[in-house]
Amino acid sequence: MNTISGLFSGKREGRVFLSPAVLLLLALTIFPFFFSLWLTFGKVSFVGGLSIHWVGFRNWARLFSDERFWNASSNTLFLVAIAVGLEYVIGLGLAILLSQSKIRGRGFFRVLFLTPMMLAPIAVGYMGRMMFNQTRGPVDHILTHLGLPAVAWLSNTDTAIYSIILMDVWQWTPFMFLILLAGLETIPPDFLEAGRVDGASRWQLFRHVIFPLLAPASLAAILIRVLEAFKIIDTIYIMTGGGPGISTETLTLFGYSIGLTAFDLAYGSTIAFSLFIMVLVMSIVLLLMTRRFQEVTFE
Prior knowledge:
The chain folds into 2 domains: 2-39, no CATH class; 58-298, Orthogonal Bundle (MetI-like fold), CATH 1.10.3720.10. Helix content is 73%, strand content 3%. It is built from 14 helices and 2 strands. The chain has helices at residues 2-7, 11-39, 58-64, 67-100, 106-114, 121-131, 138-145, 160-185, 189-197, 202-213, 215-230, 234-239, 251-261, 265-298, and strands at 42-45, 51-54. The chain has a two-stranded antiparallel ribbon. The model is unreliable at 3-8 (pLDDT under 50).
């Protein structure tokens, strides 16, 4: 046994056994990343075989002058801000309700809340298209029974994106609920009891004790959801296809239609990297805001 352990204890042997995994990681992540980055400065031609020609910053200049790109960017930012904000507020409310109240069957409600998150986004898209159908959908059916006019949810440029937001909130609020509930359960009860002894109201307990201590869990949940919401494509593709017109087209759907439908791989890669830069900047801003919030709160 000692002989066997001695054979694998050296650093050289460890590097040998780790090298296949490292090489696989490089092949699957780093190489495609830099290849796609290179494509943003080139032009792909399929005439006489695949060839890539260097064009400099022409794709980036095209991107910044493309009105469709700015429309997709505004749609993406609007969807992320509204959907993730609603998911956090509703998820936090449900987590507080279920953690502090003595509700019978709490385990059942936890499983029930998590059910939408278990569904595939494509299935959620088909459900949304059925729910918000203007002629046969149950949402408009309920509205007409209440004496309200039916709404063209998916065929109206003013309401289509809100239909997508509602389905996203329905599916991913359980994720926020799960993370925030776990964060609430890690707060020491002594902190809350000390606040009550000092005469703090429920709002004061939440503002000065629960919310600051929940900041790490909140940051993790918001960051994960922001990253995922920026990449949303399947639900939108099924529900509206980016329409009416391009009113619900996001950057991922825009990049898909340009790169894999129109086969403009270079411009499609440029769109993808613009999304990467946007997500990176958003993540850094969220981290800095959270750190500043924690410094001010605990001073």
